[in-house]
Amino acid sequence: MINKLVGKIKKTQAPIVVGLDPAMKFVPKHIQQKAFEEFGETAKGAAEAIWQFNKAIVDAVCDLIPAVKPQIAMYEQFGVEGLIAFQKTVEYCKQKDLVVIGDVKRGDIGSTSEAYAAGHLGHVMVGSTVCRGFDEDFATVNPYLGSDGVKPFIKVCQEEKKGIFVLVKTSNPSSGELQDRLVKEDKEDGKARPVYEIVGEQVARWGEECMGDSYSYVGAVVGATYPEQGRILRDIMPKTYILVPGYGAQGGKGADLVHFFNEDGLGAIVNSSRGIIAAYQQEQYAKYGAENFADASRAAVLAMKEDIAQALAARG
């Protein structure tokens, strides 16, 4: 699957993933009202609204981008009905030939991690029948339980030719409370290093076990809001694809991103969520209005593509 992702990035010339994180405040009123007329102001009504919202955005941008990243919490908050909307979104995006990165941030021990991996990337046997759960192409994984929490995902990736993105340096302001802590290792130089570097090295080692043509199935999450750390981690993980959240609404911009990419112009894919799906609520796209929210999303993707391209060109 990493080969497909790289191929689609090359084809679209857009190292962009659209985060499908449909909080109700982003869903235009006319879509909400139609869903509520059919299903009431219920969890089912909310799930229908976010599904129709997602579908319209995907239709508007699918020819421009290689991938989408639905964040499962935005669906889980509506219970089973929300998870049905999540599954419908995943299936629809795959019908559009988009790579689907399930932003699920799973990570547990032993059999629990095996079950998460099977549910999101693999399959289970029900009698003699193969049953697949959400069946995303990639999943995000929390590494802080160590190899016990990650290796079940790697095993499924090897079997299914799918992939994971491991949290290394996240984009949120408080990430440094743990991720920047200095750790003195038992090495000859005795130098202390931040936790995120140690995790990055571990990700690179895990990645050696399952390589695609040029990059590993085991990727990393490194926030756009930390460009200097991105430069360091790019050197530590040369064969690792980096998923870069934090563009746009969280403050990241194209100029911050150049160090996340390798010299081949590959190696990173940049996520924007509300900066794209809620573009119609931003001043520069207000002319589209709520009725044409999907057109505003398309315009935001094109602007993001140009911003990244200019930044990479300026790098030389």
Model description:
This protein is an alpha/beta fold. The protein has a single domain (2-310), classed as Aldolase class I (TIM Barrel), CATH 3.20.20. Helix content is 45%, strand content 17%. The protein is built from 12 helices and 12 strands. The strands form 3 sheets. An 8-stranded parallel barrel has the order 1-2-3-6-7-10-11-12, surrounded by 7 helices. It has a two-stranded antiparallel ribbon with strand order 4-5. Strand 10 (218-222), helix 10 (227-236) and strand 11 (242-244) form a beta-alpha-beta unit. The longest helix has 23 residues, at 293-315. The mean pLDDT is 94.
Question: Which secondary structure elements does this structure contain, and how are they paired or packed?
Answer:
Elements: H1 2-12, E1 16-20, H2 29-39, H3 43-61, E2 67-70, H4 73-76, H5 79-95, E3 99-106, H6 110-120, E4 124-126, E5 129-131, E6 138-141, H7 147-160, E7 163-169, H8 176-179, E8 182-184, E9 192-194, H9 195-207, E10 218-222, H10 227-236, E11 242-244, E12 268-272, H11 274-277, H12 293-315
Parallel strand pairs: 1-2, 1-12, 2-3, 3-6, 6-7, 7-10, 10-11, 11-12
Antiparallel strand pairs: 4-5, 8-9
Helix pairs in contact: 2-3, 3-5, 3-12, 6-7
